[in-house]
Amino acid sequence: MNRTSRLLSTAAGALWLACACLAPTARAGLAEGTPAAPTSAPAAPPPPASSGAIAAAGAASTLTAPAPTAPAAAATATAATTTAAPTTAAPTTAAPAAAGDGAPPSGAAAESGDFKTLDQEVQSMKKDVIDLNKDLFVLEEELLFPANTQVAVYVSMDVGTFFALDSVTVKIDNKQVKNYLYTAREADALLKGGVQQIYLGNLKVGKHELVAFFTGKGPVERDYRRGATINFDKGVGAKYLELKISDKVAKHQPEFLIKDWE
Questions:
Q1: Domain residues for 243?
Q2: Looking at the domain assignment, is residue 114 inside a domain?
């Protein structure tokens, strides 16, 4: 019995030594991705072993168990390489954006051109409206005040040293047809040689009377009101009359005249 136990212990020790020798070869085969070839034919099943041999065999299997961890490490390294590789392509996508930032936006240039064209069209339309307004004004005068009945009255000033004009009232045939109040700017324009059309109307052919009253500041800044009268004949054509204010230097007084433009 003792001899049998010794034989079983010797066989278990030999088996453990064989397993210990085969473990490095199996690890290398798994790391390279190819299974390790068996070095010898499978041994015949051993006879029943004692408890000591079973314990030795358990210890040998415990020592050789960690070998399969090599494929997991290889798989982890491969996955890390696969996930890290796409990061090298990132700069290629940023290059077109950087190149596009330096170019001027074509949309803004087109919009600016549209605004310029629109402004030119508006200015052209304004000019057309002004021209049309002039034509309509002339047509209105021709329709409302035809030449055979038209009468026009104008106001002018010469020097104006002794009179500052405030207002003018016009009466034709004892009927007031116009009363005009002047601003300082308008009075200054008359002093500089301007002529104002104060009245435009219609009169039938025949004899008529025009009376004009001038109100303002006379010599020594006192209130001044004077009048002038003219009798005229209205013919077939248009009639033009001028109310003229001038200085009478000899008397240091203003003078008011009504001139008939034949």
A1: 150-261
A2: no
Tell me the backbone φ, ψ of residue 36, rounded to 5 degrees.
-75, 135
Q: What is the mean pLDDT of the chain?
A: 72
Q: Which residues of 71-107 are buried (b: 16+ CB within 10 A; e: fewer)?
A: eeeeeeeeeeeeeeeeeeeeeeeeeeeeeeeeeeeee
Q: Is 129 a domain residue?
A: no
Q: What is d(CA 199, CA 242) in angstroms, rounded to the nearest whole number? A: 10
Domain assignment present for 108: no
Is the pTM for the entire model greater than 0.85?
A: no
Residues 6+ apart with CB under 8 A from 2: none
**Number of compact structural domains in the chain:** 2
On whether both 257 and 154 belong to a single domain, the answer is yes
Q: How far apart are CA 56 and CA 134, in angstroms?
A: 125
pLDDT digits (tens, 9 = 90+) for 66-119: 444 444 444 444 444 444 444 444 444 444 444 445 555 566 666 777 778 888
